[in-house]
Each structure stands twice: as structure tokens, then as C-alpha cells.
Amino acid sequence: MASEGDDVAAAAAGGPMDVNTALQEVLKTALINDGLARGLHECAKALDKRQAHLCILANNCDEPMYVKLVEALCSEHGINLIKVDDNKKLGEWSGLCKIDKEGKARKVVGCSCVVIKDFGRDTPAKDVLDDYFKARK
User: Fold this and answer.
1) Is the pLDDT of residue 12 over 70?
2) Closest to 118 measured CA to CA, from 24, 37, 45, 23
3) Are 19 and 132 in contact (CB under 8 A)?
4) How far apart are the first and last CA of the chain?
5) Over the chain, what HEC string results?
6) What is the C-alpha separation between 109 and 88, in angstroms, rounded?
7) pTM value?
8) Is 18 exposed, middle or buried (0-12, 13-18, 19+ CB in 10 A)?
9) CA atoms of 80 and 59, how far apart (whole Å)
10) pLDDT tens column, 80-104
11) Phi-psi domain of 51 (left: phi exceeds 0; alpha: psi -120 through 50; beta: other)
């Protein structure tokens, strides 16, 4: 796990951070600060109560009504939505896995939706995501 953190820190120090790397770092910070809602039920509650700051949805979600619900709640409440390629990757980023002795993720559980309710501290990664959403508007 230390090598993953070093990679993220090196990316932050070495040059401009891409959106996926920034998203990983923001999710890690939010997980540490207990600011994540994972899964449809938790995400729908957080989105509907307007507690969410950012919503992440997996592109390979196999239930179209799931995607429709999350997208509708985000647009209705004005919450930023970002899509990632793989639900297994999203599950790993949001802490739904076991880490073995070598620091590799094992037993990764797929997660189609994650909501950030609390970013924790402000980081350069959060600034990268803020700039990304400003550019999209």
C-alpha cells in the first residue's frame, strides 16, 4: 500500500495530475475521514438529502434503472457526476477490498456507485477535480 501512496504523491509533485489519479486520491482521503457512501441505497439516501458533494458512477453497471436513478438525482440536486470505466476498479478505490501483505488488492467487490459526503481536507487532487468540473460547465 505504501507504493501506491508514493505513486500518487510522485504524480502530484512531478507534474499535472490526471482526473483518475485525482479521483483515487480524493476517494482515499474521503474514506479515511468516513465521508463515503457506497452502494445504491446509501448513495440514493445521500443524494436525496443533498449531503453529497460528488457522485462517481461505473460505466459497466448492468442495471439501466440504477444508472437512470443516480443520474436523475444528481441532475435534480445539482451534484457533480463523474463516470469511471470499471465497477471493480471503483470498488477497490473506495475500500471494498482486502489488502494482502504485498499491498495488492484482493477480494475486490464491485461497486457501481459511490458518493462523497465529506472530502476531508483540501488537497491538490480536490482542486484538480474542481477545475475539471468548472471546465465541463
Assistant:
1) no
2) 37
3) yes
4) 35
5) CHHHHHHHHHHHHHCCCCHHHHHHHHHHHHHHCCCEEECHHHHHHHHHCCCCCEEEEECCCCCHHHHHHHHHHHHHHCCEEEEECCHHHHHHHCCCCEECCCCCEECCCCCCEEEECCCCCCCHHHHHHHHHHHHHC
6) 6
7) 0.76
8) exposed
9) 16
10) 888 888 888 888 777 776 777 776 7
11) alpha
Instruction: With beta carbons less than 8 A apart as the criterion, state whether 84 and 20 touch.
Output: yes
**Backbone phi, then psi, for 52, in 5-degree steps?**
-85, 140
What pLDDT sits at residue 97?
67
pLDDT of 15 strictly over 80? no
Compute φ and ψ for 3, nearest 5 degrees.
-65, -35
pLDDT of res. 16 = 65
Contact 43, 117 (CB under 8 A): no
Task: Return the C-alpha cell found at 21.
Answer: 489519479
Cα dihedral across residues 18, 5, 46, 91: positive or negative: positive
